[in-house]
Amino acid sequence: MSYRATPVPDDAPEKITVKGLEFYYGDFHALTDITVGIKEKAVTAFIGPSGCGKSTFLRCFNRMNDLIPGTRAEGTITLDGQDIYAVGVDPVDLRRRIGMIFQQPNPFPMSIYDNVAFGPRLQGVKKKPDLDGVVQTSLERANLWKETKDILSRNGLALSGGQQQRLCIARVLAVEPEVMLMDEPCSAIDPTSVQKIEDLMDELKDRITIVIVTHNMQQAARVSDFTAFFLQEHAGEAAVLVEYDRTANIFTSPKDRRTEDYITGRFG
Amino acid sequence: MSKTITNAIALTLLWIAAIVTVLVLGTVILYVFVNGIGQLSLEFIFTWPEGVAAEGGIWPTIVSTMYVTALAMVIVTPIAILAAVYLAEYAIQGRLVSTIRFAADSLASVPSIVMGLFGLALFVEAAGIGFSMLSAALALSFLMLPIVMRTTEEAIRSVPKYIRWGSYGLGATKWQVVSRSVLPASMPRIITGIILATGRAVGETAVVIYTMGQAINLPVSPLDSGRPMTVHLYLLAMEGINLPAAYGTALLLMILILAFNLGARYFLRRNRKV
């Protein structure tokens, strides 16, 4: 396994700070006592066995869980020091600042151009030259421009799975988010495309903060600067954050026995 | 009995059932075709019926049918889509919504002759619109509304949650998600529903016989009365006025409805291919 060449400094500021988070789906207590600081302009990976709540936790950051009836979050999550669950915070505004990539590439059934222009148009950008510019820049940043510049009017669904996922990344980049959440972005695409997306994450983190949920430990080791290991120890119990550290430490000298067991493949 | 024999018998029965179904349909189509094809000509389509025996063509009835169908479609589409959006996206799912849904399904199964009677009482008489395209279109829209509303609702519900999430994730408001992601994604199926409901309206007789009148007119204003193809066909055949022309009308009507159904299929396919 290879680790990141240029380490994020210890004094890098925290972009997102989570304190004492409890999360509930109705009566089910899904996450308990989660405290973690996500460093700015770094890649943070959430790992853990299926059902350990890592995706749930990720969706707290852009309040996507609000869309699921009966969910409830306690504790605080701050973005640049501001509580995102405070009264008066509009989740719609929050989601413009915190973009999200899903497990299943989800281009809209419309042209490649319209997919990328979707976010800017939501915010009222109408002029063609402005949109053209955003579309090109975003596709370039997503390393998809060369492949698509001549077929911008083609339906986004006509692309391959890997290209679709990069189209979704371009679509998110078009709204200039500060944070990009990636929920198992590579689990539904082919290995060559996975490589491309991992390279892309490396380039993007110069400007944005990335949090990725992955069940693939090699991937976490390859792409991330920090790793958080989540675990639901017994069925029906709330999941906990077992260990959070620099990725190199997690994979070479984990402090917690459970982390060690997981990364050496003893369970999960 | 051995498994092979059971299997063979079951297979044979299934085959027979399938063949009977196709045969019935084929016989009807063939019968109308054989009897009607002699009538079909440009003259039959584009000229007026003349004299007591309704010799000549059926042009005004074609126009009346198209007119009333188009008008009904214009009335139904916005109402049905808005209602479906409300039911699928906004209404809190519970007893009220299931009641509305049940009402819509019931509306779809009301015998059309009852709907016609209702249209006569409400639009022709009470509202004073008289026998007209408008009365007929309003009455027809009662028939079409539940079809379009339910297919639209199903179409909206079948939009994958990933599409919605993607839209929300870009900072879309609920209305933006619905209007810019969900509706466009479900549009092929919505349009298919509209086309199918339109096909139903084209073939509808009972409703229009009560509400459009029988006068052979070329309707211009929505308040003009007229005689649709189905009613023309009914009168020609039942009163023994001109049986060949009745078959010609029937054939034309079937071609029209077939065209609508093929149109719906084509539309759905073309969009599925991407």
Q: Identify the CATH homologous superfamily of the domain at 14-105 and 178-263 in chain A.
A: P-loop containing nucleotide triphosphate hydrolases
- Could you say which overall geometry of chain B the principal axes of the C-alpha atoms support? globular
C-alpha geometry of chain A: globular
Task: Fill in the CATH topology of the domain at 14-105 and 178-263 in chain A.
Answer: Rossmann fold
Report the end-to-end length of chain A measured between terminal Cα atoms.
Answer: 20 Å
Q: How far is the N terminus from the C terminus of chain B?
A: 50 Å
CATH class of the domain at 14-105 and 178-263 in chain A: Alpha Beta
Low-confidence stretches of chain A: none
Q: How helix-rich are the residues of chain A, as a percent range? A: 25-40%
One letter per element, helices H and strands E, the order of chain A comes to EEEHEEHEHHHHEHEHEEHH
Can you count the beta strands of chain A? 10
Q: Could you say what the CATH architecture of the largest domain in chain B is?
A: Orthogonal Bundle
Query: What is the chain-wise order of helices and strands of chain B?
Result: HHEEHHHHHHHHH
